[in-house]
Amino acid sequence: MTAQLIDGKAFAARVRGQVAEHVARLKQDHGIVPGLAVVLVGEDPASQVYVRSKGKQTVEVGMTSFEHKLDASVSEEELIAVIDQLNADPAVHGILVQLPLPKHLNEDLVIGRIDPAKDVDGFHISNVGLLGTGQKSMVPCTPLGCLMMLRDHFGSLSGCEAVVIGRSNIVGKPMAQLLLGDSCTVTIAHSRTRDLPEVVRRADIVVAAVGRPEMVPGDWIKPGAVVIDVGINRIAAPEKGAGKMKLVGDVDFSSCAEVAGAITPVPGGVGPMTIACLLANTLTATCRANDLPEPEGLTA
Ligand SMILES: Nc1nc(=O)c2c([nH]1)NC[C@@H]1CN(c3ccc(C(=O)N[C@@H](CCC(=O)O)C(=O)O)cc3)C=[N+]21
């Protein structure tokens, strides 16, 4: 392997340390304790693990964690009532509704009900529009985490050729907006892109966010390019024993690491940064709600 490894786990620990310092100061100087509410509908075991680790890290940085676990059969009215209650609660500065929701619930309607100022996922259309027009907004956690790692690596991203593979509302599109905001030349590639390998070969920055295990091989990567792997795919790992599973990204790590200048691993790359940025966003929302200066280096 020739690429430098971008250690998202260590980076996330540093971000949480910075958040914890700010939280301690907020408490000491202003008597304010940031609160993050997570709403989980249904019993998906993977979601439960994720919600548990979020709750643990929220408390570790000194914030208050609120968890609302609702039955999978909850009605839209009941879910909306919970959101209204969290919107009105001054102890709650951030609200996250775990996605995806069960099919009978309208995600756009539910997300649209969250007070945009408390929308720490940055999924509300007000925040999407603010980001798209370069205004102050809540920024989706995964793209924000990727941006932090890229800024740390490059210093300035100005003039870089960036290719984002994937056009989702939660990663691809906001990632492209953030890169554009940092003056990259941005291409959004997707399943219908003609000659994807040639498009990716132009890139100084490749962000892979498609959800297809190991789909980007090393021979698509320009030598020295920086590869950010957003994918978290659980696949069979017969080499580890019958029935065993492993986590892999959207890029083929071993071949890409032979060519890239730097690369994020899976696990231990973008994933931990997503949770760290959720805490950073909760801190930012708390500062804005109280007309206090925002933490430096923790926002877009
Ligand atoms: N409203 C909403 N916002 C989200 O941000 C959101 C969501 N819904 N629904 C579910 C997905 C999933 N997600 C992950 C975050 C971190 C890791 C993470 O830290 N993964 C570890 C590995 C964990 C393991 O070993 O399973 C890593 O990549 O190193 C994984 C998954 C956020 N999500």
Automatic annotation (TrEMBL):
A single BP term in Gene Ontology: methionine biosynthetic process
A Pfam match: THF_DHG_CYH
Annotated SUPFAM superfamilies: Aminoacid dehydrogenase-like, N-terminal domain, NAD(P)-binding Rossmann-fold domains
GO cellular component: cytosol
Ranges where the Tetrahydrofolate dehydrogenase/cyclohydrolase catalytic domain occurs: 6-121
Pathway(s) served: One-carbon metabolism; tetrahydrofolate interconversion
Enzyme Commission number(s) from the entry: 1.5.1.5, 3.5.4.9
PROSITE patterns, A to Z: THF_DHG_CYH_1, THF_DHG_CYH_2
Residue positions binding NADP(+): G166, R167, S168, I232
Positions in coiled-coil regions: none
Subunit structure: Homodimer.
UniProt family annotation: Belongs to the tetrahydrofolate dehydrogenase/cyclohydrolase family.
Function text: Catalyzes the oxidation of 5,10-methylenetetrahydrofolate to 5,10-methenyltetrahydrofolate and then the hydrolysis of 5,10-methenyltetrahydrofolate to 10-formyltetrahydrofolate.
HAMAP family registered for this protein in UniProt: THF_DHG_CYH
Protein name: Bifunctional protein FolD
Organism: Planktomarina temperata RCA23
Name of the gene encoding the protein in the UniProt record: folD
